[in-house]
Amino acid sequence: MHQERSAAGQPSPAVPSPAYTLIVARWLWTVLVALSLQLWAQQEQYRQPQEEDETYKQREYAFNPLQAEQEFRVGEFYYRKGSWKAAVGRYEEAVKWNPRFAEAWWKLALAYEKLAGEQAQAEASRKYLEAARQALEKFLELNPKGKQASEALRRLERLKSEHR
């Protein structure tokens, strides 16, 4: 076997055949197109509005205390993290799965109050405070003698006096 040598005596680099070059070019083109399509699909996903809230509204709720407890625990995570809107969403889910879940109503009211405190617009703040008032009333209906009942009454009176 004889290797070609350059003028300096070194072996010359192998030059790929035109057929091999064409195969590699087609493969690279296919990869480039696939990646472009994937990027385009991801951009479309971000342009779509969030559907999580719509999914919750369309769901039918049968009494399910285990699902309610799971939603409540996720709500607790978000509450401790300070993500009031996410906590509200999970607490609302919990009371839909179990409308008699007093502690979820209590935490829902607290999260709504926190969310109202963050709102710069008065209208949004009033909306959240009204939701907090309704959650407190439901909590007191379900748990009138519970350990948070006196605090719930105090908060409810404060909310009612602020909105007169």
Question: Could you walk me through the main structural features you see in this protein, from its secondary elements to its overall organization?
Answer:
The chain has 164 residues and is mostly helical. It has two domains: 16-47; 60-162, Serine Threonine Protein Phosphatase 5, Tetratricopeptide repeat. It contains seven helices and no strands. The chain has helices at residues 18-47, 52-58, 65-81, 84-97, 102-118, 122-142, 149-162. Helix 3 (65-81) packs antiparallel against helix 4, helix 5 runs antiparallel to helix 6 and helix 6 (122-142) runs antiparallel to helix 7. It is elongated and about 100 Å long. The model is unreliable at 48-52 (pLDDT under 50).
Overall 3D form: elongated
CATH class of the largest domain: Mainly Alpha
Low-confidence sequence ranges? 48-52
Question: Which structural class do you get from the secondary structure elements?
Answer: mainly alpha
Question: What's the name of the CATH homologous superfamily of the largest domain?
Answer: Tetratricopeptide repeat domain
Largest sheet descriptor = none
Percent strand equals: under 5%
Head-to-tail CA distance between termini: 101 Å
Give the fraction of residues assigned to helices. Answer: over 70%
Q: CATH topology of the largest domain, what is it called?
A: Serine Threonine Protein Phosphatase 5, Tetratricopeptide repeat
Give the helices and strands as they follow along the chain.
Answer: HHHHHHH
When the domains are counted, the total is: 2
Annotated CATH architecture of the largest domain: Alpha Horseshoe
